[in-house]
Description:
The chain is of the alpha/beta class. It has helices at residues 27-35, 44-53, 68-80, 101-109, 122-130, 147-157, 173-184, 208-217, 240-251, 257-268, and strands at residues 11-15, 38-41, 60-62, 85-88, 113-117, 137-142, 163-169, 190-194, 202-204, 225-230. It has 3 domains: 11-120, Cobalt-precorrin-4 Transmethylase, domain 1; 123-230, Tetrapyrrole methylase, C-terminal domain (Methyltransferase, Cobalt-precorrin-4 Transmethylase, Domain 2), CATH 3.30.950.10; 237-274. The strands form 2 sheets. The protein has a 5-stranded parallel sheet with strand order 3-2-4-1-5, with helices on both faces. The chain starts with 10 loop residues before the first strand and ends in a 12-residue tail after the last helix. Bound molecules: S-adenosylmethionine (SAM). S-adenosylmethionine binds at residues 19-20, 89, 91-93, 96-98, 121-123, 167-169, 193-198, 225-227.
Amino acid sequence: MQTGAPPKAGTLHVVATPIGHLGDLSARALETLGRVDAICAEDTRHTRQLLGHFGVERPLLALHEHNEDAQAASLVERLRSGQSLALVSDAGTPLVSDPGYRLVRAARAAGIRVSPVPGPCAAIAALSVAGLPSDRFAFEGFLPAKGGARRDRLARLAPEPRTLLFYESGHRIGDSLADMAAAFGPARPAVLARELTKLFETVLGETLAELVQQVRDDPNQRRGEFVVVVQGAGEDADGRIAEGRRVYAALAAHLPPSTAAKVAAELTGAPRKALYGASG
Ligand code: SAM
């Protein structure tokens, strides 16, 4: 019977997929991917392989940064007509340094229900094992590829008090870490999370200076995918006060405390009142 009522709109499910270990695809992600009318994928070949592993066969539609604007309207039409769609990226959570936000925005603007199926995300996985302050953090995604622009961005981030999260690839990790050490100070606590959930997973670090050294000395530490987690600027983000206290302790054995503090402050750039009376 023809009622004339508009069809009930479908839902856009934003589905996280593994960042390495296939066991991290959630049961709900699998169930959702298996029942939608079509799956919008960043790279359809990559997603077909993932689905094949789980025995899921659904129509795939390419949605990547070069066609997202053009595709969004027709995908919203499908949703309006009652189809349900899933959005996935090559790895992890869509929209996190990945395509999808234009489609999500268009769907929400059209009153379509957009529902997350949360799961793996490299930034959050790295934060969860870094052991750096995690109550407030800022996700910075990829730094600019060109050295000058990258150093400008880092200089602006140097006073940021929140823990910083960066994505980086193997061919730039050495340069990026060196630029971070120069901008934030070599003593800034930092952690390099590489190949998370994969065979060669490593989580390294104490300071940026140590990470620069480890990546320089071991070519294996330049292979794969990386998240860099850097502690935010604190009272002693660049280690000047710690250095000033060491110098003060040495000088105070030979000089009056006020003179030792003055000289240590001049030599290290640490504020004098942070040194006076400190034992090192
Ligand atoms: N949407 C993804 C997410 O939720 O994490 C991120 C996609 S972004 C295009 C890819 C970057 O994420 C890589 O260059 C790397 O910096 C980071 N990444 C992805 N998988 C990773 C892993 N297993 N270990 C460490 N970093 C990873």
